[in-house]
Amino acid sequence: MNQRQNDSVMAQMPIGFNVHTGSDVQAMLDVMGLHSVEQLFADVPAEVRLQRDLRLPPALSEWALMRDVRAMADMNATVVSHSNFLGCGAYEHYIPAVVDAIVSRGEFLTAYTPYQPEMSQGLLQALFEFQVLVGRLLGQECVNCSVYDGATALAESCWMMCSASGKRRVVVAQAVWHQYREVLDTYLLPRGVHVDYVSQCPETGMVDFGAVAGLVTRGDVAGVALQTPNAMGVIEDVQSVARICKQHNTLFAVCVNPLLCGWLEAPGNLGADIVVCEGQPLGLPLAAGGPYVGIIACAKPLERYLPGRLVGRVHDLNGKLGYALVKEDREQHVARDKATSHICSNQALNAIRVAIHLTCLGEANFMRIAQANAALALQLRELLTALPRVKVLRSGVHFNEFAIELPVPAVVFCRRMRSRGIFAGVPVSEVLAGHDCGLLVAVTEMKTTADLEAYVTQARACLQES
Predict the structure, then answer these.
(1) Does residue 60 belong to any structural domain of this protein?
(2) Of 358, 381, 413, which residue is a domain's last?
(3) Cβ burial 94-128 (10 Å sphere, 16+ → b, else e)
(4) CA-to-CA distance for 372 and 444, rounded, in angstroms?
(5) What is the pLDDT of residues 318-373, one digit of tens each?
(6) Domain of 402: which CATH number?
(7) Which residue range forms the structural domain that includes residue 423?
(8) pLDDT, tens digit, 9 for 90 and up, residues 203-251
(9) Where are the beta strands (DSSP E) in 165-272?
């Protein structure tokens, strides 16, 4: 039978062949002691009930519906259909197949908060391993069992600094992702915390050290927070800012791309009191923006202010080794006004993805991937800035993301490139106002030299268009 004959046969099938029959419906009504479907809605007043059929297209069989949904999905432009150079906090990295295979096991996939440790040893051990691995990666001793995402992790770190110091003012580098700034304001302003945003050096793109120092000398600042690489793709001088904070007895939090720790020293080893990150680059798919996983790591003296939960390795009364929640100072466990945070959940399954991903890669491979990101990004930046009237927007050192200035508006350039099958990057104007011709380009280990050369070829053609 050819495809046309098959379609004809399927089209003649009754639309409702995959739903309940009349006898099925009657059997269910009999069990409920009802004589009609109408009785199911007897409690809904007649005046608010729709007295006509819904204005919907004719019903489809399951096979026809799936065909139509797939056809609509094929209309989307994705990182599968296009060559992707988007970043801004969510990056296309390779995820080993074993990550999905392990995390899809029922013991992990269906598990919730391990309130009963004797029944949840596997889940608790997996989360404990996550804490250990991430602590080593970020250079800090204490790690929580995750929060919603990188933005909430940064906001929670600022509240930790306020709680620990008793002060209600934080200094934040302006060059953090705009969505992170929105979450910061949402978290902190209603709590009476004043946020001072510090501009960046117009040449290097790094935070203005003088402005930071001038603010922390006031004496009322709980802490300083910055992101590295920042919203312009520039790596911040964490050690210099840490030195300023230490001189004025001010706490310091750093939001880092975790993959950067495979290329440079971890912020925790450079003087940061709190290190947070978005865990998406560590084994989580892009997934249209989430769900992701926020990670918070801190020095031991700040452990009591960590939000969420901590898993510890403990001994029971018989001396047997096991795992348990050793800290859970959230509102479901303590009085609301005593809670370290009002966050009510975590991202345990995604945290386990991170642990599996890091374990599968190992330290050597993790560093190789980080180095590949840096090298490929540098290669593309050099190729692009060799084009006429394309130049680097900020001179600071970058990792896997960099900003360039184009001779045309970045929005126009991106539209032209997308029509050629390439997501060229994110206009800087969507990150920081006032940069209409700026473009933020991200490169990961998923790209080859051929991909970079194809990007430059198409970019040259797009820039020559009138």
Answers:
(1) no
(2) 358
(3) ebeeebeebbeeeebeebeebeebeebeebbebbb
(4) 7
(5) 889 999 988 876 555 556 666 667 676 678 999 999 999 999 999 999 999 999 99
(6) 3.90.1150.10
(7) 83-93+363-464
(8) 999 999 999 999 999 899 999 999 999 999 999 999 999 999 999 999 9
(9) 169-173, 194-198, 223-228, 251-256
